Amino acid sequence: MKGYQSELQSMFIQILGGLKHSMTEHLKAQGLELSPLHFIILRSIHHIEGCTSNALADHLRKDKGQITRLVKELVGKGLVEKVANPNDKRSQFLILSEQGSACFKGLQEFDFVTLTNMREGISDAELAQFLSLGEKMVANLGRGL
To answer: Coil, strand or helix: which one is 106?
Structure first.
């Protein structure tokens, strides 16, 4: 029985590479000096209530130092603000600034169009099956398999 490991790996590399390339080109066209990872951080800050750098690092499974550096860049560009965490004086919540929210919304619209184009010709049932399989794969990775 064929394991499909190589094909699986190749498919994920192609999907991720295509998404990264598309977002990079859009960011350049908009004159934004941001990377796709910056967009992912903006999206995560938008979606995670009470978002902190530690929460981002855990959510994205990235090194806290890398996240801290990227957040610092976004703060420097005026896209993210830090506000005091009333429950823990040692941490700060991350929020999108007004400029950051506007930037995120524009990038999110482009992202939506890209993802819509990506699923062209794929039925809802096929997509649901793909997502179900993907969730199982993520769970398997979480167990260290």
So the answer is: helix
* Regions in the chain scoring below 70 on pLDDT: 1, 144-145
DSSP string, 30-99: TT----HHHHHHHHHHHHSTT--HHHHHHHHT--HHHHHHHHHHHHHTTSEEEEE-TT-TT-EEEEE-HH
Look at residue 143 in the predicted model and tell me its pLDDT.
83
> Is residue 5 a part of any domain in this protein?
no
Q: What's the structural domain count of the chain?
A: 1
CATH number at residue 62: 1.10.10.10
pLDDT of residue 3: 77
Domain region containing 52: 27-142
